[in-house]
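Field reference: sequence -> structure
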Amino acid sequence: MSSLYILSINYKSTSNDVLSRFSFTKDDTRLLVRQLLEDPEIDEACVVSTCNRTEVCCSSEGQENIFAGMLEKLISFAGVSPDELDTESVFWRYQDEMAVRHLFEVTAGLKSMILGEDQILGQVKNAYEMASEEGGCGKFFHTLFQKALAAAKKVKTDTSMSKRSVSVSTLSFIEAKKFFNDLSGKKILIIGARGHMGSIILKNALDIPGLQVFVTLRNDWPEDKNRLAENGELVSAPRRERVHGSVTEYTAVMYQQRYLWADDMDIIVSVTRSPHYTLTYRELKESFRTKKDRLLFDLALPNDISPECRDMENTLLYDMDDMKKLAEHNNMEKKQIALQAGELLKEYEEEFLKDETLRQSRDDLDQLKEKLEGLAERKGFDRALDTLLYRVRDDSTEYQFRQLMKVLREIEI
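Structure field:
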C-alpha cells in the first residue's frame, strides 16, 4: 500500500533568509520533481513552492521511510550544506493520515501566513498539474490532489473565509491607505508585475480609483524607444492587456530607468525572483530628490530592496517579516471561521482515506469474495457468512469487533 510523505519548510519553521534558499521557480520545481522520481523508492512526487513555503510530497509502496532520501535531494538541489541547518527543526515531516490533513489544510489556506488566503489554491493546482506533466502523479496522487482541491473550493464557497479573504497584496494596500488616507492621485511603481504575485498586485492596484499605476518592463521595447533611452530621455508607453481575466491599462516604464522614475513615485512595490537587489540604498537615496512621504513594499524572497532603505527620511519600508506581523492581527479575526473550515475539511479527508483504503484493498477483497463464493457453494450462504464473522471476531480486538458490528447494524441495504 502507498504511504504519503510530506517534507515542509515554511515561514513558521525557519527565517526568511533560509526559506528564500528553498523557494524555487517553476522550472526549478519541475526539475526537482524529475530528480525525486529518479529515486527507486519514490513512486510519485509533487513540489509546491511559494514565497512562504515549499512542500515536497512523495509516495512510496516500499517499507522503508523515505524522508532521508527526500531531504538529501532537496538540500542538494537548493545548494545548501546540511551542516548549515538544524534539519530536524527547519524541515517538518508529515506521514500518511497526518500528511493528508496537512496537504488539505495547506490547500485551503489554513496554514498560510495570512489565514484563508486563496492564492495557495491556485499554486497547489499548478504544482499538481506540473507534476502530472512530469509523470509524478499516479492513481494515488491524482485522487489525493483532486480531493484536496475540491475540499479547498468547498471551504471557499461554504464558509465566510473567502468573503474576508486577505492576501499579502491586499494587506499592502490596506497599509498604504492607512498611511496616505487617500490613494487617489498617488503614483505606484510595480517591479516584477509579470510574476504570479506581481500580477495580483497589479490587478489590485488597478482596482483602486485614481491610483496611477506604473510597471517596469525589461523587454518588449521598440527600437525608437531604446534609442531615446540611450540618449538619456525618460521612456514610457501606455499598455493595455488582460490580467487575471480583466482588461487593464497602465503606464509601462523601462526597468533600466527605474531610479529615474523613483522620485515621482509615492509607493514602490518590488516582487521579483532576482538574486540581487532591484533597489539599492545608495542609488535610491540619490533618486529621492523631492521631500515627501513614501512607502516601499519588498514582497520578495530573497529581498529585492536593500534593508538599509529603512533609514531613509520620510520613507517606510515593509518586507515579508513585517507582513507576517500584519497578518497575525488578520488571523485572530479568522480563528473561529478556521475552526468551521477545519471540520469541513475533515469530512473530505475521511472520505479520501476510506476511498483510498478501499482502492488499495481491492485485490484482497476480490480474493476474499472468491473464497466466500466457494464456501457458499459447498456449505451454503449462511454457513459462509458465519465462518467469516467468527474469523473476524477471532482476529480482531474487542473494540474493533464491536465497532464493526455497530457499522453492520446501521447499514441499510
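Note: The first helix runs from residue 16 to 20.
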